[in-house]
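Appendix B: a complete holo record

For completeness, this appendix reproduces one full record from the ligand-bound portion of the collection. The bound molecule is zinc ion. The inputs are the chain sequence and the ligand SMILES; the output is the full three-dimensional arrangement of the complex, encoded as structure tokens. No fields have been trimmed.
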Amino acid sequence: MGLCSRYAPACSSWTLTLVLTGLFYGFPCLYLAQTHSMSAHIIYDGILFFFVIANFTVATVIDPGRYPRASDDEAVDDQRSPLHQNININGVTVRMKWCTTCMFYRPPRCSHCSICNYCVDTFDHHCPWVNNCIGSRNYKYFFTYLVSLTAHMLSVLAFCIFSLHLMKMEGESFLQYTPIITICVAVLDSLLMVPVTALLGFHIFLISKGRTTNEQVTGKFKGGHNPFTKGCIRNWAYLCFGSRLPKLVGRKPKKDLLKKVKMVKAAPDKVHVYVDNSSTNGNTSGRAHLYTKV
Ligand SMILES: [Zn+2]
Ligand SMILES: [Zn+2]
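The structure of the chain with zinc ion bound, as generated:
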């Protein structure tokens, strides 16, 4: 992918956000402030807009949960190695694929992003508008961005309609800059709000079900049980209050980190790893399906 096509969606989303909000503050907001001494709405929407920009920036620049590639001495390309390994989590078989680029078995929910060219923990999707992968470390900021953006767009539309109503009541001509730009902002805002609200609704559904976009679109849980959901309420609690995972690349672990980590031994009947030879001997019959309850 060329640099231009990679950065174009992110540049257009930044431009649209800043230009539309700038026009909103410069015309309908200014009209309400000057003619009706209304400034509370500017403070209210200013706070919303701050959250939009803050979450957009964090979702863009933060490491989404990138896994480091195997180093040269670790990367043993053994042709006899199976392409998959299966792990059993709470009675559900989850297949771990061998990543030929990063040279390791991808942990459950991890996927390789073809645009960023690295494996991402709890990969949701690659968002061209944010120009970053959405994974375990930035999903919360991406979701908060969607929530604050929807609230900001609703607020812009409501104040545009309200100021147009006041202009009409006061008999002002609509052939002036302020009403024309207010109508343009309201129309563009309404059009853009449709996909943003739909995307927010889709992610509310995914969080409630404990799924990622990648799992949903690839139909991983069709007719099976999702081993990663904690239940609707706990999924939301984890999103809101769960701590962010540490960075996996570009940072050396502290020497005394292991001393602080409380090692928890998994019960042997809960989790076990075994080799899946189905891909090497060509016989797939009778094998457990991916993410299907066994
Ligand atoms: Zn990879
Ligand atoms: Zn990516």
